[in-house]
From TrEMBL:
Organism classification: Bacteria, Pseudomonadati, Pseudomonadota, Gammaproteobacteria, Methylococcales
Pfam families: YgjP-like (PF01863)
Name of this chain's protein: YgjP-like metallopeptidase domain-containing protein
PANTHER family noted in UniProt: UNCHARACTERIZED PROTEIN YGJP, UTP PYROPHOSPHATASE
Species of provenance: Methylomagnum ishizawai
Domain YgjP-like metallopeptidase residues, every copy: 17-227
Length: 236
């Protein structure tokens, strides 16, 4: 919900007494009373944005389990960073394909391109790849200060069965589907692969190194064991 506030309707009401943000399954609505200007209203919206997003994600998660199609199809939801968000597919006003994220994914495809799953998936990968490279670089930088484990490069890839790998020449590879796991899980996989820069095994010493970076690592590993298979089945 930026200044233009897509995803949130603004409604001016003569009867309203105060600013009110209403979140329903269909979307969010900001009710603006007399005497409050647009700038104040948007500041209020910005202040309560996180709450509204959480609320909407809850509605969508509930709706998703009930009726939504699964995968990369219009009307589906995606668990972006662990929270279900909508996936909308619209016709592009020009011939370009583009992806926007604002509380949910909106993918615009040229009118000539049918919204097939591979096409939607490719468009989404094009958006997630640089996004995740940034996220992973930030995570790596945060952890590098400890023991200087710095990757030579970070590659985001479409992998079928693995979450990450560490190349022999110091580059780490990450599965783009980590975008659909909680942020702490992405952090764990980055740290796991960084630690392989020092130790190329899964010995006690390796896990000790992981724990020194990330004391709660076993919880994240457990999450992957428990939900990772489903994520791969659903999206890989
Ligand atoms: Zn490993």
């Amino acid at each position: 919900m930026s200044a233009a506030a897509p995803g949130c309707r603004l409604r001016y009401s003569a009867r309203a007494k105060r600013l009110r943000l209403v979140v329903k399954p269909a979307g969010a609505e900001l009710v603006i009373p007399p005497g409050v200007d647009r700038e104040q209203a948007l500041a209020f919206l910005e202040q309560h944005r996180a709450w509204a997003e959480r609320k909407l994600a809850e509605f969508r998660a509930r709706a998703a389990t009930a009726t939504a199609p699964v995968g990369f199809l219009a009307g589906a939801t995606l668990p972006f960073q662990g929270r279900e968000v909508a996936l909308d597919i619209v016709v592009s006003p020009d011939r370009r394909t583009y992806v926007e994220f604002d509380m949910g994914f909106r993918i615009a495809l040229p009118a000539t391109a049918a919204p097939t799953e591979p096409r939607v998936k490719a468009a989404l990968f094009g958006w997630i790849k640089p996004w995740m490279a940034d996220e992973a670089a930030r995570i790596a930088a945060r952890h590098a200060v400890r023991y200087g484990l710095e990757p030579r490069a970070i590659h985001i890839k479409r992998m079928k069965s693995r979450w990450g790998s560490c190349g022999t020449r110091g580059a780490i590879n990450l599965n783009w589907l980590l975008a659909f796991a909680p942020p702490t899980v992405l952090e764990y996989v980055v740290v796991h692969e960084l630690c392989h820069l020092r130790r190329r095994d899964h010995s006690a010493a390796f896990w000790d190194l992981v724990a020194r970076h990330l004391p709660g690592w076993s919880q994240e590993r457990h999450w992957l064991k428990r939900h990772g298979g489903e994520l791969l089945r659903r999206f890989a």
